[in-house]
Design goal:
327 residues, alpha/beta, Phosphatidylinositol Transfer Protein Sec14p, 2 domains, five-stranded mixed sheet, 16 helices, membrane, cytoplasmic vesicle, CRAL/TRIO_N_dom, golgi apparatus, CRAL/TRIO_N_dom_sf
Length: 327
């Protein structure tokens, strides 16, 4: 075992060897092979290429050198293409701070039975008057940056549960293709995290319809890990034990405290709202929602046609074939 594996338990070391092809005898060579590829992309500013940083990309791509490098390049390219998102990339930024305090994201205290961190989002908590969807994405990315420092999570990964209860049609109308594309590129294509499952619960019919729009932009591996449970929490419990879930998800624990993770990041600044007034609101993030840069969005310029959605019968949700896969 090298010093780069010092933070791993014996069980996780074995998991890294079996599932990720991590070999302590070749670890430094693996890292160097990825680092040597940096010169092939002079158009990208690689701000970090130290051993520990590159290792998380190797783990995210099961030690496939080229795939790990491609992810590393996309990580920095995403930040270059969306500079406004990362200008004030800290927990005390007004938009990020408010999103964090509203539970974007939340993190459960207990890991699941695979050692994965369980992240939770309560979609209806979004206060459109105080922060934007881009701020929520920034808060999630900032949180992942902090969490991925843990080598155990680099190996074991994450699970995400999104509760869509009381998420209104008006709120859903803000989920434009450009916004969704920005999120997909930031989370699926440009971040070194392993997501073992993304669970939708209590989703209304219009979220189900919206999912069909973004599905083509998701990788096959990602699609297989998305579970639409609706109101069927029993199917959720087959995958995540209720003993570690809060009562909102039919679990045995008390209701989730939305400020739990925010207090961890903000510490003594959690209760200081001096930066979070309307005059100091982060306007670049607002502008980013109007014109998001990824060129690929040219092929998808409008959200699901509201006229089409309004013509859909609300009962149609019950008639849709469930997309839950338990294999």
């Amino acid at each position: 075992m090298t010093h780069l594996q010092a933070g791993l338990s014996p069980e996780t070391l074995e998991k890294a060897r079996l599932e990720l092809n991590e070999n302590p005898d070749t670890l430094h060579q693996d890292i160097q092979e990825v680092r040597d590829m940096v010169i092939t992309r002079p158009d990208i500013g690689f701000l970090r290429t130290d051993d520990a940083f590159i290792l998380r990309f190797l783990r995210a791509r099961k030690f496939q050198h080229f795939e790990a490098f491609r992810l590393l390049a996309q990580y920095f390219e995403y930040r270059q293409q969306n500079l406004d998102m990362f200008k004030s990339f800290k927990a005390t930024d007004p938009g990020i701070k408010q999103a964090l305090k509203d539970g974007f994201p939340g993190g459960l205290a207990n890991l699941d039975h695979y050692g994965r961190k369980i992240l939770v989002l309560f979609a209806a908590n979004w206060d459109q008057s105080r922060y934007t969807l881009v701020d929520i994405l920034r808060a999630i990315l900032l949180s992942l940056e902090a969490m991925i420092e843990d080598p155990e999570l680099q190996v074991n990964g994450f699970v995400l549960i999104i509760d869509w209860s009381n998420f209104t049609f008006k709120q859903a109308s803000k989920l434009t293709p450009s916004m969704l594309r920005l999120a997909i590129e930031g989370l699926q294509d440009s971040f070194p995290a392993r997501f073992g499952g993304i669970h939708f619960v209590n989703q209304p019919w219009y979220i189900h319809a919206l999912y069909t729009v973004i599905r083509p932009f998701l990788k096959e591996k990602t699609r297989k890990r998305i579970f639409l449970h609706g109101n069927n929490l029993n199917s959720l419990h087959q995958l995540i034990h209720p003993e570690i879930l809060p009562s909102e998800f039919g679990g045995m624990l008390p209701p989730y405290d939305m400020g739990t993770w925010a207090r961890t990041l903000l510490d003594h600044e959690y209760d200081d709202d001096s930066e979070c007034n309307a005059d100091s609101y982060n306007t670049p993030a607002k502008d980013a929602e109007k014109d998001l840069s990824p060129k690929s969005m040219k092929r998808s310029q409008s959200v699901v046609d509201p006229g089409v959605l309004k013509r859909m019968d609300k009962n149609e949700e019950e008639n849709m074939q469930p997309l839950l896969s338990l294999d």
